[in-house]
Amino acid sequence: MHKIKKAIIPVAGLGTRMLPATKAIPKELLPIIDKPLVQYIVEEAIEAGIQEIIFITRSGKEAIENHFDVNFELEKALKISGKNKILKSIRDIIPKNLKITSIRQENPKGLGDAILCAEHIIKKEPFAVLLPDELLMSNSKKNDLSEMLSQFNETKSYQILVEKISKKETEKYGIISPKKPIKKGEKVISLKSLTEKPLPSKSPSNIRIIGRYLLPPEIMNSIKLIKPGKDKEIQLTDAINNLITNEECEFNAIISNSQIFDCGSKEGFLNANIAFSLKDKDLKNIIRRRFNK
Ligand code: UTP
């Protein structure tokens, strides 16, 4: 069995929930304090040992590739003006040995379709998927993706990260159905099926999928076989569900150990900026002084 070294980060969506901010600027480059969202996600992948990132992108989003490339003029200007700390911060965005590839998705036909665009790079290997609008603030030394990779290496089961939500929110997310009732404190859950955005009255549970997956290469064929589902999109949830229900691959859900911010929404984006500021000593004091908190 291959080790997982490749991660797909799809960035070809329209970002309609954050318009007008995302009319000309990709949602993935909106900053959380002074760092674009997608940089946090790439750092999370590197921390877990990923060695190759594959962006699924589209026209108008070239700035994402530029962010991870060398900006020769800027580096030269910073060097001449002696701004060495800032120079280091833009030079060290990614380690030298990290490979980055970009592939274009012609139309934003859904997350499943976006993943399928990388079939020729993934070949027959298992791989990770990280959705860049879900920002995770880890509560432990080992981030969730590292935990998922350890589970995969140990059990050879593919992994999906999940969290408990209130039942009335199920319509916004992919929802899991566990094989057995979940025991108190249980972190790893065997899966019976997945459903994309069910109505609260029809939802099999109140546990939602967070955008972190470890997937088998077989997912590519499964995506080819499915029809457009919820929101008329090719849904990754439906393709994984078919692999689970046809018993082609074993999947587990892991309960996240992080605070999660859906930065594709105004609420999540605002909360992430506040939470990350409160983690920084200087910014925390600024907020306290300004708002008397
Ligand atoms: P979302 O549905 O959250 O992103 O997809 P979106 O479509 O950009 O946002 P809204 O709903 O219009 O506000 C999750 C991730 O999958 C990517 C998006 O870029 C986002 O990072 N995606 C989605 C694609 O790459 N291609 C698609 O066809 C759909």
List the topology elements.
Elements: E1 6-10, E2 31-32, E3 35-36, H1 37-47, E4 52-57, H2 62-67, H3 72-80, H4 84-91, E5 99-104, H5 111-116, H6 119-122, E6 127-130, E7 134-138, H7 144-155, E8 158-164, E9 174-178, E10 188-196, E11 207-215, H8 219-225, H9 236-245, E12 251-255, E13 258-262, H10 266-278, H11 281-291
Parallel strand pairs: 1-4, 1-6, 4-5, 8-12
Antiparallel strand pairs: 2-3, 6-11, 7-13, 8-11, 9-10, 10-12
Helix pairs in contact: 8-9
Uridine 5'-triphosphate binds next to helix 5.
The number of distinct helices, counting runs of at least 4 residues, comes to: 11
Give the CATH superfamily.
Spore Coat Polysaccharide Biosynthesis Protein SpsA, Chain A
Named CATH architecture: Alpha-Beta Complex
**For the largest beta sheet, what order do the strands appear in spatially?**
5-4-1-6-11-8-12-10-9
Describe the main β-sheet briefly.
9 strands, mixed
**What is the count of distinct domains?**
1
What gap, in angstroms, lies between the N and C termini?
A: 53 Å
Rg (C-alpha, Å): 20 Å
Structural class determined from secondary elements: alpha/beta
For the record, the CATH class is Alpha Beta
Basic shape: globular
* Bound molecule kinds, no repeats: uridine 5'-triphosphate
Strand content: 15-25%
Helicity, in percent?
Answer: 25-40%
Mean pLDDT value: 94
**Uncertain stretches:** none
